[in-house]
Amino acid sequence: MRVFGLTGNIGSGKSTVAAMLREAGIPVLDADLISREVTAPGGRAYDAVVQAFGEGIVRDDGSIDRKRLGDIVFADPAARERLERITHPAILEAMKEAIAGLERGGHRAAVVEATLIHESGRKGLSEAVISVTCGRETAISRLAARDGMSRGQAEARLRAQMDADRKAGASDYVIDNSASTEETRRQVNRIARMLSGNE
Fold this sequence. Notes:
The chain is of the alpha/beta class. The protein contains ten helices and five strands.
């Protein structure tokens, strides 16, 4: 089974590209969704995250307040590293299980969508990595529109991530999501055809 990674910094349009891949018939596993599952009450990383960051990150219903936790870890690189040490092994395990399930279901290819493929060593899961890029100002305006972030908050999130050019340089394929939706779709469809064995 062919497995490609899909990465890109916050605001790059990675989720848009993932949706286009799904429309083209390629299953996409969302690392963020799997992260939510492993840190949900009863999930394999929940207790360790609460123990590391305290009851202050827990909502009344027992779930982890991801915004509060995000504010902590994006402001402190050591805290972010601590969180990643807890969650990454659990996410990787869950991801491997999901890929095995897709293969049993007869899929010939899948894409793993994750912001931190290069940073976390998840590259080993996939034979190649696709990086989604866009201009810095485009990313900042998208974050302001989508998440209601101030410019300062958006810039802090971008600074906390691997430089977009370095990420693209470390990847096997790059999708430039700076132009029109049609142009992005054209690039995505080419990769989907390759993954499906039609190119």
